[in-house]
Amino acid sequence: MEGQDARDLGDSVRLEASAAPPAVDQKMQELLGEFAGFIEQDYGSFMRADMKTQGRQAINNTIITDDVFEADDAWRIDFAENNLDLATALSAPLRRSKLLGTHNVTGDAPINFLQSSESKLPRLTPKQKEQLESDAKEKNMSPEDMMMVMMGEAGIHELIHAYIPQDTPHDVNEFVTRELTVRLITKHYGSDPTEEVSTPYSTLFNKLTAKYGNDFYRAVFGALRNPLTKFRIFRDLNENELKGLV
């Protein structure tokens, strides 16, 4: 999808589904614009050109909504991208309580949805609320501010998804996105305020980058021309403890 068409799509969905005040929406776009620069600075040489375009489009096409679960399901059903049974989907309270953001692509244009921090707080389970309060206290933050930080991190996470081709195996995509989210925040902000660096993720990530070098990044971002090497990288991921991590 051409740049202006993709932007028009994002603006149209924002008018229909956004729950964010203009100032919050603007701050999110500024944050994502900054991190798009970090992503391309660190990994841009391993990306296909169309993935760079798609990633940049996701900056404008990230929508903060009151119900990311509903928005995501409605979006995918509307565009017939899956056979989701809405009645079954809505009966999954655990997924609904955990979801902070989603990433979709239609017509080669990304649409990312984020759960607004204000609407997320009342939906937390008692255990999640207890954990949030504990984490916020440790970081010397209020629970409300901690939720804002988590919403920002979710935005960065979904932005990274937009740089990865849709035909990348889902588990591989999620594993790499989670690890790069932590690495980028740690490198460019000094620390990740919402979680410690995950040792199992980092250990596996380091093992694969040591074995395959830059071909690992090229495979992930769709620029690797050697199909055999790409197959081996994704096979190694599936044969490792990946399924226990995502």
What fraction of the residues are assigned to beta strands by DSSP? 5-15%
Mind telling me the C-alpha Rg?
A: 18 Å
Order of helices and strands: HHHEHHHEEHHHHHHH
pLDDT < 50 runs, ≥5 residues = 79-98
Question: What is the count of DSSP helices, taking H or I runs of 4+ residues?
Answer: 13
Structural class: mainly alpha
Strand order of the largest sheet: 1-3-2
Mean pLDDT: 80
Explain this structure to me?
The chain has 13 helices and 3 strands. The chain has 246 residues and is mainly alpha-helical. It folds into 2 domains: 1-163, no CATH class; 166-246, no CATH class. It has a 3-stranded mixed sheet with strand order 1-3-2, sandwiched between helices. Helix 2 packs across helix 9 (143-162), helix 3 (49-60) packs antiparallel against helix 9 (143-162) and helix 9 crosses helix 10. The longest helix has 22 residues, at 22-43. Mean pLDDT is 80; it is low at 79-98.
